[in-house]
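@channel sequence for tomorrow's demo:
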Amino acid sequence: MVMKLRNPPRIKVLEALGCIADRRIIILDDNRAKVVSSDGSREYHVYVDLQRSAVYSDDNGTKLRGYVGYPIIAFLMIKGVLPYDEILAKALTGIPWKKLNEEYKSYSVVETMVKNTIKQRGADLKLLDPFVNNVMMRLSKLSLIYDPSLEKVVHS
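structure tokens (generated this afternoon):
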């Protein structure tokens, strides 16, 4: 079913930065990418058609929960559609996102833990919230539509 995607939980912006910094995203062409989960157990397939504002990703956030998942955010950052911050990204390397999200089942708890890690690694936390706010605002302006029919294109 085609549907307008909601903005994600804020932590997904951080997860996208970490994904890029960990080199877990592989760009296949202008519209397609593969993303490996933080624990290496899953591979997500991403397709973005900005002309139509249509996207596809088989991550749970996008496919099941109806928000823009971190694989799409990471792809849009690499394409220059969304902002990217190298310093924040480096401070987010090696975070076991999947493990933390499953263990604590609370994005706010995990976000607090991740912010503590960022601070310990020397990144300026004062830059974090404005960066995330900017990404969230730009995401909302994109008005992305989830189109499950793009699944066949992503695998071609």
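heads up for whoever presents: The two ends are 21 Å apart (CA to CA).
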